[in-house]
Amino acid sequence: MKANLPPRPEPVPEPNAPTHSRRALAGPGRRRLWAAFVLAALAIGAGVWWSHREPPPPEPPLPATITETEVREAVERARANVVADPRSGAAWGDYGSVLLAHLFDHEAQQCFEEAARLAPNDPRWPYARGQIALKRDPANALVLLTAAADAARTDPKFRTAFTLALAEALLEGGEVDRAADLFDREAATRSDRATYGLGLVAVARGDDATAAQRFAAVRWNPSCRKQAHAQLARLARARGDVTAAKQYEAEANAVEGDPPWPDPYLDHVVGLQVGYRGLQRRTTILERDGQFQAAAELYLEQARHERTSKALTGAGINLGRLGRRDMRHYDEAIALLREAVQLGPSDTNAHFTLSLVAFSRAERLWVADPRSAEAAGGFREAIEEARKATELKPDHARAFLHWGLALKNLGDPKAAIEPLRKGLVIRPEEFELHLGLGQALAACGDRAGAGASFHVAQKLDPNDPRPAQELAKLK
């Protein structure tokens, strides 16, 4: 007998199958969905790219007022480099440097801004902007020069110059303590510029003794010779030392002007200058550095383009300086200077320079042989050119000096007295005039007058042994 089993449950019916097939899943609706997704992703990506993309480079400026062909060509060459590579910070900075060299400050400023944006770690571009701002926006200049000094801190080529430029600007703006810290830091590297700056700091603090010490240490540096002697003269007068003050004033007056301190960036900018202004600035730098041959060659290059008394005089004075080492340079110099006075008969400097070089050459010959006919001829030429210089410029004390000394060396001390005394009327603090007058008076037998002149000369420059030697001869 079979067991009673529960009835088998009926199978649960499956849910209704979807009405669309798999092929339907790949239909137009699905494609539209994917297309919308891709388009949305592209739109988002484009938005991100657009928000982060670099702005297009600006158009490099071109000055409208360029008059010299040589300058225009230099500017256009530098600008073409920017057009060829507009995202190069160096190209923008180099173009700005060319513009700055030719005094197109506004256009240069635009270039340096772009250069700094493209190459933010290069200290030259904030420095260049700071140099421009010193004249137009002193407050912003301090910000820019600070940025430049910070960026150059690990760059030995630019560090000292950029730091000292900042220190000078701070001192000018009355921030004496900050300036002093920077000057002190660079003075440790034996920088004359820093030492001179510390002298100015001492003046600002009222420490005259320290100021005098600092200025005396650097007074023969060509980049501060005039300024240092002028400061020493002022300090000497303040302490009542009139004799020393007059000697310092004479040294200051003997220098036309101090050339700029060496600066690797600004010297480079000067080297970019072309045209007449470029020549003047480059020769100033070369003369400052004692490169007289190179300076003479620059003047001669200009003379080949345009024969002027100024160009020939510039070449002549630099060749004359070389004559101290090689007499043959004197001959080259004198030939050029003779041509200069013919081209510029009213050029006082040409006449004076010819007198100076002719006298220097003749004196070398005269020391070797006091009876040299060639030396006598040189002294006579020096006298004639000095006389012409004083006719054109009656207060030219050094022309009177050469005139008198040449007469004395020719054996006519009596005639020498008058031009030497005329020179002293103009420059009573001039050491060489007192010494020369004393020698002329001694040769004429006026021992008392000679002694008085030598004593004045001795007071004006106690370190020069010649007055004492001349006084010893009178005993």
From TrEMBL:
The chain crosses the membrane at residues 33-52. Pfam families: TPR_16. Residues 1-16 have a biased composition (Pro residues). Keywords: Membrane, TPR repeat, Transmembrane, Transmembrane helix. Residues 1-25 are annotated as: Disordered. The keyword Acetylation does not apply. SMART domains: TPR. TPR repeats lie at residues 397-430. This is Tetratricopeptide repeat protein.
